[in-house]
Amino acid sequence: MSIGVNCNVIMRLVVIVFVCLQYPNGGWGDENLVSEAPSIYVQPDAIGMPLGNIVLIRKNSRYCVLNFTKFIQGKKEDEGSTSYEAYFQGDGSGDFTKKNIKSMEGELSFMEPKQMGGILSVLFHPFAIGGGNRTIISGNFKLSWTGGPKWQWVYFYRFGIEEPRDHGIEIAPTAWGNIDEVNVFDTRLKWYRYDANRSNLVVPVDKLWEDNDKGGDTPAIIPPKHVFPAIQYDVATDSFDEKYNTVLEDVANILKKYTTFRVRVEGHSDMGGTEAYNLEISSRRARAVKEQLVKKYGIQSKRIEVVGWGTTRPIGPSSTANGRAANNRVEIKIAGVD
Fold it and tell me: Which of 153, 301, 319, 328 has the fewest Cβ atoms surrounding its Cβ within 10 A?
């Protein structure tokens, strides 16, 4: 017991020293934010959003749409709660118009230790003893939250459960306010991961789509009808055929020219095996194409999403040899343009 208590005390002291050195003027509590206009705040370990602005979360082709709808100040200054709506899409498609979306409403709350204020309250709470629920839950996502009347903060990790580091979580602030507007492949989106070396960014909401990252990539425009030929596979195989290199060259050239775009590689199969087998071989085919783009053409892995559809999206009749051959394919789509 004494060892646990001593470790807890040491951790608290380390955090206090770090905060005092990093934020000598009291930090970034709501009362100290530098912009009064509705703005997006990007810190090394969290994204700050105004109420009503949707924030997107993703990891390994799983997506969450999060919208903070209301903040209620408690009777005391160090008490408050916020309501949120969450939508989870876990099938790899990122399509929030599908019926398999999991939606929920939740409430988060806090009770800060009285001796702390400003950034101390925001950063110290992972180790604080206090009431409230600070965990956002949506599908497989569980992330920590802090908030106030003006801004709601989503962290890239869970307080007290995970270390503050990159866990593969990506967060994208948006100017949207309604689930019907969401397109996770919109090329205007800027996705952020935990980055201890990142400088704090402040972007007004009405400028978010203009200067996305304070001088970062500018969204490019390409013909929305650009379609790549399908890459065909023989029955029960997942080996990439070199004769389709011209297709991958076309894909690679576009990705190198338009650096803000990603592609989605979608694998398909005929109905020749079990459902599980067909799903697996369609995924392997898509991964084989991604491997070619990464290793042979130098495209960053993070710019290529892989989805296996199995037999769910046929383009030919399964009753004919030509139809089955057509269904054994991989399709490549420019994300956000399909």
Answer: 319
